[in-house]
Design brief:
This protein is an alpha+beta fold. It has a single domain, classed as Alpha-D-Glucose-1,6-Bisphosphate, Chain A, domain 4. About 25% of the residues lie in helices and about 45% in strands. Strands 1, 2, 3, 4, 5, 6, 7, 8, 9 and 10 form a 10-stranded mixed β-sheet that branches. Strand 9 and strand 10 form a beta hairpin. The radius of gyration is 16 Å and the shape is globular. The protein starts with a helix and ends with a helix. The relative contact order is 0.22. This is START domain-containing protein. Pfam families: START (PF01852). One of its GO terms (cellular component) is cytoplasm. GO terms for molecular function: lipid binding.
């Protein structure tokens, strides 16, 4: 139940962010865009968009495969499915440590569905006292991670990805921004590597 509440909240926030005019362009090249938006806190939200010559449903299925650790970036150590029912699952994701920082981990609810011809994967952290924190890890808070896959033609689609995460712990705002940006910036390489 708490997983569905969390992903419902993520869906409402996603709709607002996709329509927001306050994105600042960071990179724009070869059908790929990376944008960021400053929030009222010290954090930025990142959005990446990429057009690929692939069928929208096959892209959705590729992104929806939890063994595909690349969708979270090259610094992912492991993804463990804790529970799944219908269109909702609970995941534990651990990121590798990068000196001098400790490893990060998140426990999130993730929902995957089709709506009005588009495909979505929405995730948000949940309280999970039943999942003990790993030794030497810092538990971050994922406000949102969301994929939107939009069919353009039979063999072409656009993918939007939004990441809003507080890695927590003793990280400067600059390092936190870099942590998020690396995840968002992974979108293009996902499809370059999967070709």
């Amino acid at each position: 139940e708490k997983g569905r509440v969390a992903t419902d909240l993520a869906q409402r926030e996603l709709n607002e962010l996709l329509e927001s005019p306050y994105w600042d362009m960071v990179q724009d090249s070869e059908g790929y865009q990376l944008m960021k938006q400053k929030t009222t806190s010290d954090f930025c939200i990142f959005k990446s968009s990429f057009e690929t010559n692939k069928n929208a449903q096959s892209v959705f299925e590729y992104l929806n495969t939890i063994t595909n650790t690349r969708r979270w970036g090259k610094n992912v150590k492991s993804i463990v499915k804790k529970h799944e029912e219908h269109d909702l699952r609970i995941l534990y994701v651990q990121f590798k440590s990068t000196f001098p920082l400790s490893a990060r981990e998140v426990v999130l609810a993730e929902r995957f569905f089709e709506k009005e011809g588009n495909y979505y994967i929405l995730g948000r952290s949940i309280e999970a006292p039943e999942v003990p924190m790993e030794k030497h890890c810092v538990r971050g808070f994922l406000r949102m991670h969301a994929y939107q896959v939009i069919p353009l033609e039979e063999q072409k689609c656009k993918v939007n990805y939004i990441i809003d995460m507080d890695p927590a712990g003793n990280m400067t705002p600059k390092l936190k921004e870099k942590f998020e940006r690396n995840i968002a910036d992974n979108l293009k390489s996902n499809f370059t590597l999967s070709s």
